[in-house]
Amino acid sequence: MASASDDRDSTSESAWLADNQAWWDERAPAHAASDEYGSARFAQDPSFISDVVRFDLPLLGDVTGLRGVHLQCHIGTDTVSLARLGAHMSGLDFSGASIAEARRIAEQAHADVDFVQAAVYDAPAALGHESFDLVFTGIGALCWLPDIGRWADVVASLLKPGGRLFIREGHPMMWAIDERIENQLVVGYPYFEDHAPLTEEGDGTYVVTDTEFELRMVHSWNRGFGEIVSALLKRGFTLTGLVEHDSVPWEALPGQMSKQTNGEWMLKERRERLPMSYTLQAVRS
Predict the structure, then answer these.
(1) Residue 270 CB coordination number (10 Å)
(2) Are strands 114-117 and 88-93 parallel, antiparallel or unpaired?
(3) Which of 25, 35, 142, 233 is most buried, by the most CB atoms less than 10 A from its CB?
């Protein structure tokens, strides 16, 4: 039987995730219209793939013929890119506005991708309890989930035995740096997972846009490398790759980074001080 505390925790989590869903719903059209996502190029150039997936290619390898699902796919540019590389893709996101943009982009790109609106924790049922060869999670995704253990349960449920998880994500240490402090790397946010989120308010977004947004409140969670890897190991995964990178696809620390020709951002000075992102691969037993 659930305790009163469990009920309060569930209610709080539902409210936090509802705030996040509304935040993403409002921003999805602006993201789809932005130069950063390059969504119009999918219709213009049949060979175009996103900068994020292009960065992933050396570690991702050949995905031709794989049945894959992209969790937290947002407007689907990475999902369509994987389809263009030969995978048979589904994309899942909790934002209805994001899924609408993803379907539009896929249609214009003549990409056969099945997009489903659902929360990550509901993914197995929403996807018909299908088994996949590949679960792909793009960068800037895990920070929107309150519980890494439940996420690992979902990934295990979605993958067939021998199936592969591929994830590139912002580094837990990078997420812990307070981006408001200029010219210094100062740990100001949690590194380890906590039930209570980091709640922030702001009327902007991470792409250049003239759109004025009304919704300001958003909630996120961090967790350390040990928590992420342990969650997968406890569910029978074998870790097959873990690479840390000195770059990330957006200006995570404003004023301290410079943009590279491949679309990635790096620290301007002494970039060896801080890992910015990582690629993790694991296979389900």
Answers:
(1) 8
(2) parallel
(3) 142
Q: Domain range spanning residue 184? A: 4-284
Q: What angle do CA 17, 23, 24 make, to 5 degrees?
A: 90
Q: Which residue, among 150, 145, 151, has the nearest Cα to 165 in the 3D structure? A: 151
Residue 152 in tokens: 């690992």
Of 167, 40, 32, nearest to 95 by C-alpha is: 32
- How many Cα atoms are found within 13 Å in the side-chain-facing hemisphere of 142? 30
pTM above 0.90, yes or no: yes
The low-confidence residues of the chain, meaning pLDDT below 50, are 1-8
Residue 11's pLDDT is what?
77
Spatial contact of 268 and 256, defined as CB atoms under 8 Å apart: yes
Q: What is the predicted pLDDT for the residue at 6?
A: 46
Non-local (6+) Cβ contacts of 217 within 8 A are 19, 23, 199, 200, 201
User: Six-digit token pair at 22?
Assistant: 């509304």
pLDDT digits (tens, 9 = 90+) for 17-28: 999 999 999 999
CA 211, CA 21: separation in Å to the nearest integer? 18
276 within 8 A of 170, measured Cβ to Cβ? yes
pLDDT at res. 14? 93
**What is the domain-level CATH number for residue 155?**
3.40.50.150
Query: How many structural domains does the chain have?
Result: 1
Conformation bin of residue 140: beta by default, left when phi > 0, alpha when psi is -120 to 50: left
Report whether 82 contacts 112 (CB < 8 A).
no
Nearest to 206 by CA among 275, 253, 156, 266: 253
Rounded distance, CA 279 to CA 28, Å? 25
Extract the runs of DSSP E, i.e. beta strands, from 146-231: 159-170, 198-201, 217-220
Query: What tokens appear for 59 in the block?
Result: 């570690």
- The pLDDT of residue 2 is 41
